[in-house]
Design brief:
By secondary structure, the chain is α/β, with parallel strands linked by helices. Helices cover 44% and strands 24% of the residues. It contains 18 helices and 20 strands. An 8-stranded mixed β-barrel has the order 11-12-14-15-16-17-18-19, surrounded by 5 helices. Strands 5-6-4-9-10 form a 5-stranded mixed sheet, with helices on both faces. It has a 3-stranded antiparallel sheet with strand order 1-2-3, sandwiched between helices. A hairpin with an 8-residue loop joins β1 and β2. α6 packs across α8 and α10 runs parallel beside α12. The chain starts with 11 loop residues before the first helix and ends in a 5-residue tail after the last helix. The mean pLDDT is 92. It binds ligand C2E and calcium ion (CA) (2 copies). The site of one calcium ion has 4 residues, from loops.
Length: 521
């Protein structure tokens, strides 16, 4: 190398990096010890060097040169990586092993002290694996395990961990489930179903189909304290229960979660059918202006169930949201609303009414949402300004930019937005002024205690001032008494909705009343 320069070995960027290290030594008198990765000017192999650079000083202490020593540590690093791989990964499937799983599990549990999420540990065990090993040999058994690992990987989200514990036992760690334990249980339940369905598809072993099956034991973080070993033990107990119940089954460690999950999955199946068979009904509840005229109505979905009677949307909307059924359900509501608005346009007494529909976050975020709304409005030839979308603050917690962009798109088409349940969410007020809103809707919890709780009165007063300050209309929901209505009117609230003015009822019923009604109350 004698007589040659850095530039003979390295490209311009790499030389610049070296010079910056040199400058620290020469100008600041620092001792620099760094790991440097260089590809070189004409090689594609990356080499890793450990370089130490020292200032050389004269009698007065001034730096007059630097002395540098670089050692090529590429091979050493490769061995280290291999050791890490051996220590933390299963050689057969390349999945994390028990040790890495436990580390990740402890990290996830520690994170829970400041993140509100629940999480789940799912222990997955293949049925009859020993039999396969004994009859077809270990090499074939290994093939199955590799393929199972590959399939399970497809179900992972970025923060999930899939590990192989031992033999035919796999573990899925889902650290970021819903903060509410029952919602989390339902999410875990959906995951177990996807996994069991997937593992029930035939595997290819020695050129022929092999049918495998599995059982899953699930323990939620919230059931098992903060301890990784307890969590594993609980998932294992649940797995034993699942194995006793037959192939392709899963069990939760917590029996009450199991009951809840069963109840919800039955409801989910029934709801799926109800949507498909057009069994849902749309009710409406009128909204009154403070001058006494009716300005519009909110559409509220109802589910008449053969055995259970009327099921409240409070019970089935959350199920529709976690299962994804909210998308077809929301489409149905949108369609009904547009049909209704189209009819109202032909009736003079109803032609100026606005119809509001509730939009769940999952529905709003669906890729096709904007398209669906625009399409429905066009197809039914309705005036878009008669359609109002009620959204909630939860849309503003993540992906705010996308939310704002979508709202603007719809707003440009003339559709208006009302912010529902206002005051109960966690949205930053800073976002409020960036949203193309028409109206704030004061949550009914504040209206309920308006006359008895001075805090609630202060909140209502503030929301009205805030809304008007931003040129938004303000409506109060859940108005049940004349006193509440009076008080809200005094506070300057623009419009009202609630049992005092009228209960939700089937659309023809309200249409009849509103069409016959004199212009003001
Ligand atoms: P929300 O949007 O806050 O709707 C208002 C709820 O308050 C309705 O309950 C309504 O019947 C009820 N309500 C109206 N006036 C009064 C009153 O004076 N006092 C009291 N205590 N309650 C009153 P509902 O119909 O059971 O709906 C519950 C929730 O279900 C709705 O809350 C909304 O979040 C959701 N929901 C209803 N229909 C749909 C829908 O079509 N799509 C979506 N995504 N969600 C819906
Ligand atoms: Ca609403
Ligand atoms: Ca509401």
């Amino acid at each position: 190398m004698l007589g040659r320069q850095d530039a003979d070995f390295l490209d311009a960027e790499e030389v610049a990096l070296l010079r910056s290290h040199d400058a620290r030594v020469i100008e600041q008198g620092e001792r620099v010890a760094v790991e440097e990765r260089f590809r070189g000017a004409n090689s594609s192999d990356e080499r890793i060097y450990y370089s130490v650079k020292l200032p050389l000083r004269d009698d007065t202490g001034a730096v007059y040169a630097l002395c540098g020593i670089s050692t090529d540590i590429t091979d050493y690093r490769q061995i280290q990586d291999q050791l890490h791989q051996l220590a933390y990964y299963d050689p057969l499937t390349s999945l994390p092993n028990r040790r890495l799983l436990l580390e990740r599990l402890r990290e996830s549990l520690a994170e829970r002290t400041h993140v509100r999420n629940d999480g789940a540990l799912m222990l997955i065990d293949l049925n009859n694996f020993k039999q396969l090993n004994d009859t077809l040999g270990h090499a074939v058994g290994d093939q199955l395990l590799e393929q199972v690992g590959e399939r399970l990987k497809h179900h992972l989200h970025s923060t999930d961990t899939l590990a192989r514990l031992s033999g035919d036992e796999f573990v899925l760690l889902l650290p970021h489930l819903h903060p509410d334990a029952q919602e989390a249980a339902l999410q875990a339940h959906h995951m177990t179903q996807r996994v069991l369905d997937d593992l029930a598809q035939p595997f290819q072993l020695q050129n022929s189909d092999y049918l495998a099956s599995a059982c899953i034991g699930v323990a939620l973080f919230s059931d098992s304290g903060m301890d990784a070993d307890t969590l594993l033990r609980n998932a294992d107990l649940a797995l034993t229960e699942a194995k006793l119940s037959g192939r392709n089954t899963h069990r939760f460690f917590n029996p009450s979660m199991q009951v809840e999950v069963n109840r919800r999955s039955q409801l989910e199946t029934a709801l799926r059918l109800a949507i498909a068979h057009n069994d849902l009904q749309l009710f409406i509840q009128p909204q009154w202006h403070q001058d006494g005229s009716v300005i519009g109505a909110e559409a509220l979905v109802r589910w008449p169930h053969k055995e259970k009677g009327w099921i409240s949307p409070g019970d089935f909307i959350p199920i529709a949201e976690t299962s994804g059924l909210i998308v077809p359900l929301g489409e149905w509501v949108l369609e009904q609303a547009c049909v209704t608005l189209a009819r109202w346009q032909t009736i003079p007494a109803l032609a100026s009414l606005v119809l509001a529909i509730n939009i769940s976050p999952r529905q709003f975020r669906h890729n096709d949402f904007v398209n669906q709304v625009e399409n429905c409005v066009t197809r039914h030839r309705i005036d878009p300004s008669r359609l109002e979308l009620e959204i909630t603050e939860s849309l503003l917690i993540d992906d705010v930019e996308q939310t704002i962009a979508r709202m603007n798109q719809l707003r440009q088409h003339g559709i208006r937005f009302s912010l529902d349940d206002f005051g109960t969410g966690y949205a930053s007020l800073g976002y409020l002024k960036r949203l193309p809103l028409f109206q704030l809707k004061i949550d009914q919890s504040f209206v309920r205690d308006l006359l008895t709780d001075s805090n609630d009165e202060a909140i209502v007063r503030t929301i009205i001032a805030l809304g008007h300050g931003m040129d938004l209309a303000v409506i109060a929901e859940g108005v049940e008494t004349a006193e509440q209505a009076d008080h809200l009117r005094k506070l300057g609230c623009d419009s009202f909705q609630g049992y005092f003015f009228g209960r939700p009822a089937a659309i023809p019923e309200w249409e009849g009343k509103l069409a016959d009604r004199p212009a003001a109350l």
